[in-house]
Request: fold
Amino acid sequence: MAKIIGGIGTSHVPTIGLAYDKKRQNDPAWAPLFEGYEPVAKWLEEKKPDVLVFFYNDHANSFFFDCYPTFAIGVSPEFDMADEGAGRRPLPNIRGHAKLAEHVANRLVNEEFDMAVFQDRPLDHGCNSPLALMWPHEPAWPGAILPIAINVLQHPLPTAARCYKLGQAVRRAIESFPEDLKVVVVGTGGLSHQIHGERTGFNDTEWDEQFLELFVEQPEYLTGLTHADLIRRGGAESAEVIMWMAMRGAMDGKIRCLHQNHYLATTTNMAVAVYEQDAGQPQEPPLAHSNTQLLGVEDIPGTYAFDIEHSVKALKLNRFFWRHREPAFRELVARDLEAAFGESDLTEHEKALVRGRDWLGLIQYGVSFFVLEKFARVQKMSNLQVYASMRGESLEDFLSTRKVPESA
Reply:
């Protein structure tokens, strides 16, 4: 079974990554920060986790305010690093753990956490700024990441209590995963800082010290704080510490702090801490099925649930059909299907399914009907004709089974 072996709380200030990339580890202005991460890197080297679960926030790099989720989980097999306006950081892509992510997403939704699910969205400094200081990455990272994005940009934010409960649910999900994995949960953000308005530059290191103490000893007190409480004590952007509360929830019960450091250079009191769970915490039993809502669906003839596993497998193919929203791409498909394939990076099997207009085969492979119907429009086929084809019938035979065939 998978097991959480510890937790890390860390700031994710973008200048941490910039200083790292510029090799300022021995610069007197930055050395106190980098020295604080050395015990964290050593602890990770000793523990050798398979997966880091990152509670982080995206800073309008992969998500924008036209559709900004409260909670979102990344299920990709691999994640790129975001270009945040000054070029992509010189870090390799990092592996995801699609199976664990699917399992966690299923469990969270079944526990009534309404998660958005994302793929192919790069990770910004909310993840990669501290990650490079904690894990070696040349030529590749030693493990995988499971990113869980939390909205801390656009109010209303989730409450500290809700984030804590999210962490508890993540713990239950991880512990019920049947594969043997060592998992570390990471909460990012904070500590005290404000970077907008006339209050820009606000810090309160005394509150930061109190927060770190309460985090270990009295997390229930912190879950009762409102966003206004956190803003008043630590500055507007310090409300990010609700992501630490998600990590704390995943380490529910008594914990001990093995290492802690914080350093205020300019605008943010940059902190890092390592925690381990006290012994004796009960563990969830493994689950054969993470999505109990679909138990038995395989026994329903001719029915193919579009789930995360199929979505990950057929992402590029679904995107190929989704692009039929674009007039220029529709025209290219109609004019030269092979050229359209050249823009889509499909496998040979996927191309064969498209060439053969194998509507049922496409559904069975993992295509959502609601992107497939866009392709049908280009093929001058109605949905009714596609329905008939999937049933192995002519349109006339299919309509004869309808209550009012004349409505077609």
About this structure: The two ends are 53 Å apart (CA to CA). The mean pLDDT is 96.
